[in-house]
Amino acid sequence: MKKFLSLLLLSASLALPAVAQQDPKAGKILDQMSAKYQALKAYSASFTQTLESPGLKGQKQNLTGDITVSGQKFRLKMSGQEVINNGTTTWTYLKNENEVNISDSDPDTQEMSPSQIYTMYKKGYKYTYVQEVKEGGEALDVIELSPENRQNDVFKVRLKVRKKDTSVKSWQMFKKNGNRYTFLIKDFKPNPAVDANTFAFDKTKYKGVKVVDLR
């Protein structure tokens, strides 16, 4: 299941600056959406990740998880794994192995964290307004992002943003190997109570845990 979690942390190590002409309509919506989330001290949400793949022959794989984010800090739980990042250190806990791997966090080289999904468009991506759609009675703006780095395994990210409040309902990642990952946000809660302990791994709460320090 580790590969599913790593895909949530979508690679964002793009070296090329954004130089192409951007779609102003899409840019305005993205800026409003980004400002909305960055104005929050913290937020939490549950989500569903759906994988569609040529190898699954029409079937879908669904995983559920939850996340708490504050600035560049986050705590993510999904499929027997837990990833905690305090901005400088990342702990990855594997429940089946009762093992935690510790590594340094480098925002310039690490794979994109969930805390970056609302700002990823600002560097290394082209963005285009696609259309307005309705889902479940909600009006949504559909915006597509494409990485300027042609070597990126992800060739497109599609965001669906609610027109009523510029909140993100879902996003999809399209990979060159034919895999498609859809993340649907549910039970969004603005400004939950968080403190330093929220974004730190306390090994006393994981009896017998094996610690692997990769720093």
TrEMBL record:
Residues 1-20 form the signal peptide. Gene3D superfamilies: Lipoprotein localisation LolA/LolB/LppX. Pfam families: LolA. The keyword Acetylation does not apply. InterPro entries: LolA/LolB/LppX (IPR029046), OM_lipoprot_carrier_LolA-like (IPR004564). The keyword Membrane does not apply. Keywords: Signal. PANTHER family: OUTER-MEMBRANE LIPOPROTEIN CARRIER PROTEIN. This is Outer membrane lipoprotein carrier protein LolA. It comes from Hymenobacter saemangeumensis.
